[in-house]
């Protein structure tokens, strides 16, 4: 019992929560944007893998860390464009296209990685993002080191939550975006082209997914290895449902999730005699639980997965 | 420019679509091969040679085709009814594990081989079914999209397998390697070619493809599952019992994926490890799409993927190109196939 309290009251635990949440925040916001305009993006797992690879390779071959992040965003947007072209003007099955993008993007990432880096016994590393303590604020006891001693991409992720929450609900563009996911015909009647809006939004959302992947290789770890995304993308898809398509709740969901993840890691060292795999299963089982809890209550964007064709109803 | 739906896609176009799609994919990854500083034609020549150029190559290619046909069928039957079973990888593993577990049941080892094989295969299929019925139940009862749930269960299933083969089902004679207790000897599948790994699972896979084709083309259930996929609302209105149809589809789909795992254990390794499948479940999705969800087409599409995977290994050694190019080509062909199918269904008008 006292060991549990020790875990819960340790700065390291709560610091880790924010760190683990960061890629999930990026990814969840990315999926959220795509679904808000009515397009499911199951390419996320592959796009994150590609972002992780491209960000890392950029830094490995001499770029600085922010150039790496930028490259990951651009790479993500490129796959977003591919997904958008197939699902929006062509109206292909969003499920199948997304899975296709995932399989293509991840195998493409492994291929490119192997081209860029010859086989070595120990994976090469880069110098990752260091924690950047916010002056003054990081001196606050407990809260300071937890919230204000993170790496810069974590601050960026938090800022994006605020930006999206404001943008979606307080700006004309946000309104048009949300309407596109509810009723693209009404958007068209307003003189806005829903097809373009969908394509651009999917690209932006996919860029965020790429950033989430790059966080893994440039801040959480310092090397790239295949299967490192480990289903985080799928978890983001579940988190969007949990968040009822709202950015603020997406942050909450990602934090809750990261809390359990950080907690199970530490619990493994305390609880003996339980196979470690059971702990590792928790994130996936929790995602499923989150889906069950929220499935009925969540209000899905009405046009989600409905291809929009001009003049067709 | 806009797209106009064709009333009747021309047969020639429908037949040419997969060929065109694969050619386009080969051309695109040819660019990536060039990027690595090699010649595309030389690379594809080496892939074909690696896959078919020797007795060993042929047997390896066919051995690889077996699980791919079964997971391809698993995806094809589900997708046709618009049940998005993305969990074939997990179902494959629990099917494999069930076979090893079944071996510990007293009396199995003494059974005549035919009976032992049948019972083991059944155990694998049942395990796969159960794993898919969970996500389907959640969809029918709570409206939870089965894509994410069946996918997440892949990770859970693999961790479960890892837990079992390091714990309760660990082989004490494996020198500490994490591998399961072996499947019963009497249930191992006979070899089709001497001194190779090719086993009778190939016959099982082909028979299953024909059986699934027959079920879909000739039975009421086949008609219903198709109707449920085309337009669930209309199908429900026309009296198709949607829930029951989907449950049967899930049993078939999960069962096939579980069977793939069981066949792989009984045919190739004889025991379970966590690297039993190099993503057969995910490749099954591509294969189903390449086959345009046609069960007989699945055989051809599985063969194509197996050729790529087996051939790429030897090509990769010869030209020092990462063998991931096989995965890239196969995944790309899924995307080009989607476009090809689209072009058979729509014509472009200005």
From TrEMBL, chain A:
Its main location: membrane. It holds the Pfam family BPD_transp_2. It comes from the Bacteria. Keywords: Cell membrane, Membrane, Transmembrane, Transmembrane helix. GO terms for cellular component: plasma membrane. It is found in: Cell membrane. It is a multi-pass membrane protein. One of its GO terms (molecular function) is transmembrane transporter activity. This is Uncharacterized protein. It comes from Pseudooceanicola algae. The lineage of its organism: Bacteria, Pseudomonadati, Pseudomonadota, Alphaproteobacteria, Rhodobacterales.
Automatic annotation (TrEMBL), chain B:
GO terms for molecular function: transmembrane transporter activity. It is a multi-pass membrane protein. It comes from the Bacteria. One of its GO terms (cellular component) is plasma membrane. Pfam families: BPD_transp_2. It is found in: Cell membrane. InterPro entries: ABC_transp_permease (IPR001851). Keywords: Cell membrane, Membrane, Transmembrane, Transmembrane helix. This is Uncharacterized protein. It comes from Pseudooceanicola algae.
